[in-house]
Specification:
Oligomer: single chain
Largest sheet: 3 strands, antiparallel
Helix content: 40-55%
Distance between the termini: 47 Å
Radius of gyration: 16 Å
Strand content: 15-25%
Number of helices: 4
Order of helices and strands: HHEHHEE
Number of domains: 1
Number of strands: 3
Length: 107
Amino acid sequence: MNDFDPPISFDEVLGKALRDEGMARVIASHPDFAYEFLQYIIRLPIGWEGKTEDIRKVWTGPYGKPQSWGACTNGAIKRKLLVWTGRETPMQDPKSHSRNTRVYRRV
């Protein structure tokens, strides 16, 4: 086995726990951003559909690390404020290189 071979087994429960722990640390290190992001999501009208890039375009609140956006979006999903519509669309920001991102609905 070399460094490029996949692991023989993968502990999905441990992997998810480590992911969640990492996201919690990102949120904890940027509490002002996390709070304002959650408030913004709460104020979105029920039925709103869009991507986090749409929020970023109009964001006037405090900023955290780039990872803060994903961690806080995941937190809003876990709180059942956002759900994935099942659709993806290319990002518009040139720095994103048109990679696909998920479209969410405010519920």
